Amino acid sequence: MDIKISNVSKSFEKKEVIKDITFTIPSGEICCLLGPSGSGKTTLIRLMIGAIAADTGHIQLANIKMPNLKMLKKIGYMPQNDALYDDLSAESNLRFFGGLYQLSKSKLEQRVKEVLELVDLTEHRKKLIRNFSGGMKKRLSLAASILHQPDVLFLDEPTVGIDPVLRRTIWDQFQEIKKSGTTIIVSTHVMDEVTECDKAALIYNGSLIEYDSVEKLLKKTNTGRVEELFLMASSRGGVVK
Amino acid sequence: MIHLAKRVILQTLNDKRSVMMIFIAPLFALTLIYFLLGDSDYTATVGINKNAMPAPLVTELKAQDLKVIYVSNDDFQHPKQYLKDHLDVDAIFTISENASVNIIMYEPSKKSAKALSEIQKALSSLNPSAKINMSYVYGAQDNSTFESLGYVFLGLFAFLLVFIISGMALVRERSGGTLERLMMTPIKRGEVILGYTLGYGVFAIIQAILIVFYSFYVLNLHSIGNIGWIVVAMVLLAITAVSFGAMISVFSTSELQVVQLIPFTIIPQVFFSGLIPLDLIPYHLGNLCYLMPVFYGVEAIKRVMVYGGGFLQIWGYLFGLIGYTFILYILNTLALKKFRKL
User: Which residues are in the ABC transporter domain (chain A) (predicted)?
Assistant: First the structure.
């Protein structure tokens, strides 16, 4: 499912958080939204999933204008914090979120089993979340967002506070999900993660400063590091177009 | 919606503190109140001056449920000082030359009231023409405070505990991000509120039955009317409490803030629950009771329990609760727009 973002702006209490952003994410790719914290990545994701409406411009998912209630079935969303119920077991958490997507009982059981295997939590499925470690919560949160086999998956800073080994595992899981044809949009402020993605959108102070395939972006730099593009943008004091 | 209700139930059952708070806390509190406001069997102590009091009266005083002690002439000159020095004496009772009665007591309290009523009994038995026969349309003179105010506590507990638990759970859901995730599924906003109400509604029903059985069969409260209507009123009140808790959670970002809002949410409810007679409040402030959900529930319970009413006598209050819940349901559904436009 491709995503078209056309001239989107959004303000909160007169402060412009997203400034006239236009770009298209093609179907079946991993696109990363890269930018320092506070640059507007989460707001952009919330606009794309239709949690909030844009002030100007519009967003289309597979040519359907967002926000749209029906599209929510095709969207997977993993919020920044773990957003799981502490007093429920891993299994019950998944069953609950799966139930909201109106999966049939047998389908739900099958999917719960599958995603638990994918994130390697099968043996902990009966444990309450309050006894989970941070990394386990992250993985279960990912599992909850892909239960209903979404066409497009939004991940808001999925690797924050995660050790390098687990980060590797999680990225492998993303690649695995991509293979099934899912479009993945992942926001991050860890510049190294950009190499895992097909495309990267660099966001700085609410503006899109660069959007291209990762390969091409890295060629624009002297050192092969993405930070440089941000440093260039900040020294110019604004937007590159 | 059913999924949400099921989750609420499972989640609450997995949290032992919540279970305790719903099922054990009200019984514990009622038991405590039963002992605090129940029959005290207190025997008041009255000091008299034997020489200045007619002998038949002394005999009568002794015949009452009173402890009579003799106070010396000197002490009688300064009765207030005597009471201050002897805290175990509740009242000093004198009759002057012209037969006027003086009773001096330490402070207005239940102990003083007890002494007073026993002295009155003694006086009236000496003078049958001054005897007062009291009776009430509802209730009886020898009802303990617990018996005559019990209905207030049934309503208060049905409301308070469910309010606190559901309010806290919803705030946690907001701050923990699960509500945001929930709103990113195809669930409708109205279903979220309904699911919550349904889930806690199950606990409200069990809690109401538990409280009613405990108070009527263990603590010996009496109801003239059908206790089934009491359960109905309590369940409706608890369901209103869920909506009320949801509303409060809109204005709080943490559990601590729910606690900080207690002076605005719970305390007025307690004052207007019927604990204080509303007709006696000046400037018509008593009418504020119509803003308090607890008032509707307690009033319905009172009409069944004390006045022996049935559905015809309480339907107005029951519909008041339903209306209250409906308005809060609309407001709560609108408040969820913050998380999802649609």
Answer: 3-230
Domain over A3-236 is classified CATH 3.40.50.300: yes
Distance CA A10, CA B151 (A): 54
- Contact status of A84 with chain B (Cβ, < 8 Å): yes
CATH topology of domain B44-130: abc type-2 transporter like fold (3.40.1710)
Sheet holding B44-48, edge to edge: B66-70, B44-48, B91-95, B101-105
**Neighboring chain B residues of A73 at a CB cutoff of 8 Å:** 186
CA distance B22 to B165: 8
Residues 6+ apart with CB under 8 A from A91: A112, A116, A125, A126
Structure tokens at B287: 């009418």
* Segments in chain B forming alpha helices (H): 2-14, 16-19, 25-37, 55-63, 73-77, 79-85, 110-126, 145-176, 178-183, 189-213, 227-250, 255-260, 262-270, 293-305, 311-335
ipTM of the complex: 0.85
- Confidence (pLDDT) at B89: 86
Q: Is A160 an interface residue toward B (CB < 8 Å)?
A: no
